[in-house]
Amino acid sequence: MRIGVLFGGRSGEHEVSLASAAAVIHHLDPSRYEPVPILIGKDGRWSQPERPPTIVKASELIEHARFRAAGTVSNRQGGSLAQPTINEPSAMVQDLALDVIFPVLHGPYGEDGTVQGLLEIVNVPYVGAGVLASAVGMDKAVMKLLFAANNLPQVDYRIIRQSDWTSTPDVICETIASELSFPVFVKPANLGSSVGISKVTSANNLKAAMDYAAGFDRKIVIEQAVPNAREIECAVLGNNQLEASIPGEVVPSREFYDYEAKYVDEGSVIRIPAPLDAELTNKVQHLAVTAFKAIDGSGMARVDFLLDDETKELFVSEVNTIPGFTTISMYPKLWEASGVPYVELLDRLILLALEKHAAKQLLRTSFP
Description:
Blueprint: E1 2-8, H1 14-27, E2 34-40, E3 46-48, H2 58-69, E4 85-86, H3 89-95, E5 100-104, H4 114-122, H5 131-138, H6 140-149, E6 157-161, H7 162-167, H8 169-179, E7 184-188, E8 198-200, H9 206-214, E9 219-224, E10 229-238, E11 243-244, E12 248-251, H10 259-263, E13 269-271, H11 278-294, E14 299-308, E15 314-320, H12 330-337, H13 342-361
Parallel strand pairs: 1-2, 1-5
Antiparallel strand pairs: 2-3, 3-4, 6-9, 7-8, 7-9, 10-11, 10-12, 10-14, 12-13, 14-15
Helix pairs in contact: 1-2
C-alpha cells in the first residue's frame, strides 16, 4: 500500500511536524507499506522531497529553525530536505495513486479541517478526524460549547473576539477581573503546542497577555486556572468502537506545559501510567471517549485534562485530533503502555482510515 505521509505545514508547529513525520515513516512496516513523503512548505506550497525527513528531536529542529531565522550560519541540517519539485496539491494526490494519506500536520492549515476538506474532495482515504471534528478540535471556543452541550466538566472561561478587544480593551479587562479569579490562562482559540499562551497572576498583567494572544488569532480564550493542577492525558482510538488508553501525566519543567517545556528544554517528566486510583482512571477514560464523541471524532485523538490534586475534581481541557507522533510523544507512548506498540498503532490507524472511507462510499450522493 502506498501511504502518503503529509507533513510540514504553514503553522508555527512546522518543525514539530517534521519530527512526527520522520517517526511515522521510520515505523511503517516496509513489507506492507511504501511511504510517500509529501511536504507542505511554510509558504504553503506542496512538494515531493527527494528524501524523507530523518528522525531528529523536535528540539533540534526548532533550534535549527531559530538559527536560520536569526541569520546565524549553522552546519546542522536538522532534517532539512533537498529542494523539491512543486506540484498542484489535488493533482499531486491523484497522480501519486495513494491508497491512504497520513496527515502528520499540527496547527492551522493542517489540523483544522482545511487539508481534510481537500482530501474529501479528491476522495482519498486519510487517517484521523474528518472536516468537522478537525475544525472543532482546533477551535477551543467552539469545542467548549460542544463540551457544555454534552455535560462535560470544564473550568470557568470567557471568549473574547479580537475586534471587541481592540475596540474596548479597558472594559474587557475590568469584566474579566470581576468575573474570574486570578490566576487565569489567556490563549488564542486556534493554535496548538501552547503557542501564544500566558499565565496571568494579576489584573496588571492581563492587557499584555490579551495583546499577545490577539496577535495569533481572532478569538481569545480566558480560562480559570485550576488550583494544585495536574496535567492528565488519555489517548482514544477507533471510529465506531472506541478504546481509551491508560492515562498518563505530564509534570512540566516550567510553571505550565508551554511550548519551551514541550519541545525545547526537555526537562518535563512523563508518568505512564499516571498515578491515579482505579476510580479516577476509569473516569478519565470515560470522559475521554465522551469528549471524542462530542466533537464527532474518528481515528485518533489525545484528550487532555486538568486535575485538582486536592479535591480530585477533573476538568476536560481539549481534544487534539492530530497528536504528536514522535517516538517520545504521549499518544504513541500511551498506546504502547496499553499493549499497542508503535508499528501496530500505525497499522490500526490505516485500517480505520480505510474503514471510514469505505463506509462513506456507501452513502447516496444522488436523489432520483
